[in-house]
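ugh finaly. both done.
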Amino acid sequence: MNFKVGITYNLRKDFPQQKDQPIDSFEEFDSEETIDAIRDVLESDGHKVFKLGGGTGLIDRLRTTPVDIVFNIAEGIGGRNREAHIPALLEFLNIPYTGSDPLTLSLTLDKAMAKKLVRSDGIPTPGFKKVERMEDLHGIDLRYPLFVKLCYEGSSKGVRLDSKISEPAALREKVGWLLETYGSPLLVEEFVSGPEFTVGILGNSNPTVLGVMQIEIKGSPPDEAIYSLEVKREWEERVRYHCPPPIPADRLKRIEEVALRVYRTLECRDVSRVDIRIGRDGVPYFLEVNPLPGLSPVYGDLPIMAGRMGWEYSRLVKTVFHHALKRYGMAGTSRNDCYAGAQNRAE
């Protein structure tokens, strides 16, 4: 069946870079090309698509442009609940949308909270500490080397080639720079010296693994490799993706099992990408999860993974959309049925 579909998003071009801002301030935001690519896929399936954008003006746009469902990829602006802003608004207005709900989006954006919950479910994750001020480093009980990153950010924002820390003086210097440049909080965690993988997962009640992709930084051994901002911005020259990865079948299975456990524990919906690193002990350690994975058809990790697994970009977008439709009971319904269902839910 065909629907009126809105796309919610944030564009980098809407936020001009200021002199006093870090170079990666808007790293997570999307390009017009990505939005157009998603629109083209949905329109090719017969849906009427509206580019709604994000920001406070979205409320008025939703009033003047009623839609059946929203394809949401908006990162939001400000704070650890920013990714939840638009989904919460859509729930308030009783409008279905793709992806995880506000609770999961807020929980996973706060890396420390996500790791606490994952650890409570018995899933291996490196030792860590949330740092909000320099005084929090006193008596830190973690094994070097350490890794320091922003607690409420993704897309390697704040991550540089020197984010791996080998001794206390370097830790104080790095933490001081991050707090001054980006503000608090930060996440300090034990560095897992081994190959890094990202796992694409699709679905809801019975989620499945789309693929497992090993991320190799050219010229760097696994125990030194850092998927930093510098590397990501030059990914065509500096990164080699292996999908499926050249590892034993039993290790691949363990990675998939850990990723699926994370997906279920954090109650992700429709689509997510889980980052895992293998330790010297052979254990897959959970690093973080992205329930709003980038969908750029050019450089998005998930679309690259899908392509390596034999999927066209259109199939990936349609599959995410279909999982949302099915979750809301909209698959196989007419637009009038959809409106009736929404009205019944509102009443």
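ok and the 2nd:
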Amino acid sequence: MDLGLKGKAAIVTGGGTGIGAGICEALAQEGVNVGVNWIVGKDEVTAFAADLSMKYGTDCRPFYADISKAEDLDAMVKDVVAAYGHIDILVNNAGIWPTENILDMPDRNWEKVIDINLNGPFMLCKRVAQHMVSAGLKGSIINLSSKSGITYNTAGHAHYASAKSAINMMTKTLARELLPHGIRANAIAPGMVRTPINEDKWNDPELKKSYEARIPSGRFAQPVEIGYTVAFLASEKSFNIMGTVIDITGGMLI
């Protein structure tokens, strides 16, 4: 299916690795010019963006920004518009997933997770939406939620789960307010995805088996599989999907 995305321009936060890299690849496959946001690993992200451009004939470039800093987001949006002329798709993927119990959690650690996983996406949604409205563009915003934003079953992630739950409601309010401008907002809730952050589970056969037993589909998702859902939501083919959180957990929320 041709999703009709060729020539569109996107920002994918945290796009250089893990789920973000899979999203960038899926969009590039559809002919999207992808702004690959990064905060660490400049050389690696630059090489990754160049590889996407070569493989899929698109114009993918790295763009630095700490998403928890408003001034960085202002600069990134300005730079992406200067590079591509417009922003049609925003994917808020960047986030952190620390483990610490409530009784031992320093206040600052709570604030850091909320800043990166919730406040940053809000600030970037606002800035990109302002650009879309002023440019008269019909666009799509896709926020990364999580299984943990819908049901909580692993101790040590109160800050992460709270932020992701808030992302779900933020997405609904975005959709409600932005639909009159032709901008759709949705969220996706992945479950277990094979990324560098959980590579330890692949190196321990017993641990890997125990995790896979929790997934009805029987395996971890691959990052690009998450990207395929994002690409669909970014396209007009998904026009009637608005303000919802899509379960892509491999059945973990059944």
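summary for the 2nd one i guess: The beta strands are 9-12, 33-38, 61-64, 89-92, 140-144, 184-190, 245-248.
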